[in-house]
């Protein structure tokens, strides 16, 4: 299992555009400097009136397959 931590701050209107565009990805840099690319759709559960913001925890299996994305405080 691989675990990554990163912060995201995408305003409402910007994320709304990402969400409406098929096959859009969000690129982030994790806290250790690694570039991560995720489908924008993975962030839909965290989309609010503020957009998408917070510190996230991404879990991948040993084959780099998505397991879980969750809002992770602290």
Describe the structure.
- With 74 residues, the protein is mostly beta strands.
- It has one domain.
- 12% of the residues lie in helices and 46% in strands.
- The protein contains one helix and five strands, in the order E-H-E-E-E-E.
- Strands 1-4-5 form a three-stranded antiparallel sheet. A two-stranded antiparallel ribbon has the order 2-3.
- The longest helix is centred in the first third of the chain and has 9 residues.
- The protein is globular.
- The two termini are 20 Å apart.
Shape: globular
Q: Enumerate the spans where pLDDT stays under 50 for 5 or more consecutive residues.
A: none
Rounded to the nearest angstrom, the radius of gyration is 12 Å
Binned, the helix content reads 10-25%
Major beta sheet summary: 3 strands, antiparallel
Mean pLDDT: 93
The H/E string reads EHEEEE
Beta-strand proportion: over 45%
Which strand order do you get reading across the main beta sheet? 1-4-5
Strand tally is 5
Helix count equals 1
Structural class: mainly beta
Span between termini: 20 Å
Q: What's the number of structural domains? A: 1
In short:
The chain has one helix and five strands. By secondary structure, the protein is mainly β. The longest helix has 9 residues, at about 10-20.
